[in-house]
Design brief:
The structure holds two protein chains of two kinds. Chain A is of the alpha/beta class. Chain A has two domains: 177 residues, Rossmann fold, CATH 3.40.50.300; 81 residues, Alpha-Beta Plaits. Chain A is globular and about 70 Å long. The two termini of chain A are 37 Å apart. The mean pLDDT of chain A is 90. Chain B has one domain. Chain B has twelve helices and no strands. In chain B, helix 2 packs parallel to helix 7 and helix 8 runs parallel beside helix 12. The chains are: A alpha/beta, B mainly alpha. The interface between A and B is medium-sized, with 32 and 23 residues. Chain B: This is ABC-2 family transporter protein.
Chain lengths: 317, 273
């Protein structure tokens, strides 16, 4: 598969003024990675870990201090204008729509900016309006939209020129559950229909779980994990949690092999047990519980990815 | 013919944005009318300053009131039109804070061209009207021998004047990439320059002469061409033939502006570019 992003030793240093002293900060430190066409990659890390700086280097806004990067086969800084036709970026925190204009009008201007033909403009606008359910507020000025509506319009705006690579920077920030859900469903469908490559930075692990088949974790500018989501949890040794509802109030279920009692509710009617997926299985823990009490119902929670990331960070300190 | 079509296609993105700006500003009639009035008032206040001054004196720098009106009219008309088209360039920090500049980077057009065509302040038309009235009054009051030469000088000077002031806004934008609170500093030159330009350069103090006579060629937007038009004695440090050099002054101003802009953009992207 052809590479959409190829970074080789990509590094970016900033000089920060600290009173009178100047300090050098490595925002991105020796990043080497390759993203193939059609992949969906979650780029995660704490605030200030270097995610936005990376995106700015991939799109030609920032010049790398050292290292190289090619995006869609182009050199981002030198070929910025050509690259702009291949990449669409959604910034959750900034708008590329015109505040005082109806949504439809913003799309029309963007089509002109990307010099789409009239036919292409019509076809693509219709497709996006339908799939993102924008029809209800096309005539409404952007400033009157709800956040959920605005984000859908932003996504449409960034995808209007049918880019091969779509970069989403915190696309679901501040959205309610339903809006998040819709947006994710759209992105899945868009990827399926056009083979679009997705790169998204997010704090919302739900985004990563539902959209991405690969995760890049960055800490202080360094790539610390590259692989699938399950592997990320394994790396961190994160625990799964078994919750059981019992028929009668029981004593705390301590002493079950390879499991740890977390909490009990309602005199022990509901109890929670944590276990490490590496050393035991849910079935084995459940069997051990069933020997000691009668179980009515149970659920198994997967590890919270935010917790996983916290653990990885903590282990590196 | 084919070239014409290609050019139209290339200009279309900018034209569409500008048209949308114009439409949104004029869509609320009452609001737009108020904007026009307030802009008109600020223009009238500037003009009143000159008028009040002439209650105290009869001549300023060897020019009478009618002659000053000509200087004021040329410079102020050029400034107002440049401000209408380029004035938003010196509010770069606003664009930086809103992330608009990064958005520009993600579009397939040159950055500066996108910035310039991202807005237009139509309300400044009324301000330009004040300059135009002063200019016409100054021309009527002055003792001008009308011929092809004087008409050409007037037109050339106005166009170069607009270009020179436009360059000032771009210059200011370029500097604001790396000056903290840069707006304050650049405003001193942009608006100070406008003010100096509407006064006869013959009364400028020495620092003003250096800054606005040569470095920022403000004398070329009003005073120098007026000296030639009215056939006045020129001050020793600015020979009268300079009155014809407006286009050179504009070129100089733009060279400086583009240099600063490049400098600023490099700083922003943080590399050799």
């Amino acid at each position: 598969m052809s590479a959409i992003v190829e970074a080789e030793g990509l590094t970016r240093q900033f000089t920060v003024r600290d009173g009178a002293r100047r300090r050098r900060v490595l925002a991105v430190d020796d990043l080497t990675t390759r993203i193939s066409a059609g992949e969906a990659v979650g780029y995660i890390g704490a605030n200030g870990a270097g995610k936005s700086t990376t995106i700015k280097m991939l799109t030609g806004i920032l010049v790398p201090t050292s290292g190289t990067v090619t995006t869609c086969g182009l050199r981002p800084v030198k070929d910025r204008r050509r690259l702009a036709r291949e990449v669409g970026v959604v910034f959750g925190q900034r708008s590329q729509l015109w505040w005082d204009l109806p949504v439809r009008e913003s799309f029309r201007i963007l089509a002109a900016i990307h010099t789409l033909s009239a036919a292409a403009e019509r076809a693509r606008t219709e497709e996006l309006v339908e799939r993102l359910e924008l029809a209800g507020f096309l005539a409404v000025p952007v400033r009157q939209l709800s956040l959920g509506q605005r984000m859908r319009a932003e996504v449409a705006a960034a995808l209007l020129h049918s880019p091969r690579l779509v970069i989403l920077d915190e696309p679901t920030i501040g959205l309610d559950v339903l809006s998040k859900q819709r947006l994710r469903e759209f992105l899945v469908a868009e990827r399926r229909a056009h083979g679009t490559t997705l790169l998204l930075t997010t704090h919302d692990m739900g985004d990563v779980e539902r959209l991405c088949d690969r995760v890049l974790l960055i800490d202080h500018g360094r790539l610390v994990y590259d692989g699938d989501l399950a592997g990320l949890s394994r790396t961190a040794g994160a625990e799964r949690v078994l919750t059981v509802d019992l028929t009668a109030p029981s004593a705390d279920l301590t002493g079950i092999p390879a499991a740890r009692h977390l909490s009990s509710e309602a005199n022990g009617l509901r109890q929670r047990l944590a276990f490490d997926a590496e050393s035991t299985t849910a079935a084995r823990v459940f069997a051990a519980v069933a020997e000691r009490a009668e179980v009515v119902d149970f659920t198994v929670e997967e590890p919270d990815i935010e917790d996983v990331v916290r653990r990885i960070y903590a282990a590196r300190r | 013919m084919a070239d014409g079509i290609a050019l139209r296609a290339r200009l279309r993105p900018y034209a569409v944005v500008l048209a949308s700006r114009a439409r949104s500003q004029t869509s609320y009639r009452a609001n737009f009318a108020l904007d026009l009035v307030s802009s008109l008032l600020s223009g009238l206040v500037e003009l009143a300053e000159v008028w009040v001054l002439f209650h105290a004196v009869t001549r300023l720098g060897g020019l009478d009131f009618g002659q000053i009106l000509l200087v004021f009219g040329m410079a102020d008309l050029a400034f107002s039109l440049a401000n209408m088209l380029f004035g938003h360039c010196d509010r770069l920090p606003t664009y930086l804070r809103a992330g608009t500049l990064d958005i520009f980077y993600l579009r397939p057009q040159p950055l500066l061209l996108q910035l310039v065509t991202s807005d237009i302040s139509l309300r400044r038309l009324s301000r330009a009207a004040v300059g135009l009235v002063a200019l016409v009054a100054g021309l009527a009051a002055g003792d001008i021998t009308w011929n092809v030469g004087t008409v050409a000088l007037l037109v050339i000077s106005l166009v170069s004047g607009i270009a020179t002031f436009a360059a000032m806004f771009v210059w200011a934008g370029g500097l604001q990439f790396f000056l903290v609170e840069g707006e304050e500093m650049t405003n001193a030159f942009v608006y100070g320059g406008r003010y100096a330009a509407t006064q006869p350069a013959s009364v400028w103090s020495r620092p003003l002469k250096v800054v606005f006579g040569y470095f920022f060629p403000m004398a070329f937007t009003g005073f120098l061409p007026a000296v030639v038009l009215l056939d006045l004695p020129a001050p020793a440090w600015l020979p009268a033939w300079l009155g014809w050099c407006g286009p050179l002054a504009a070129l100089w101003a733009w060279a400086m502006a583009l240099l600063c802009w490049r400098w600023g953009v490099r700083h922003y992207r943080g590399g050799g570019g």
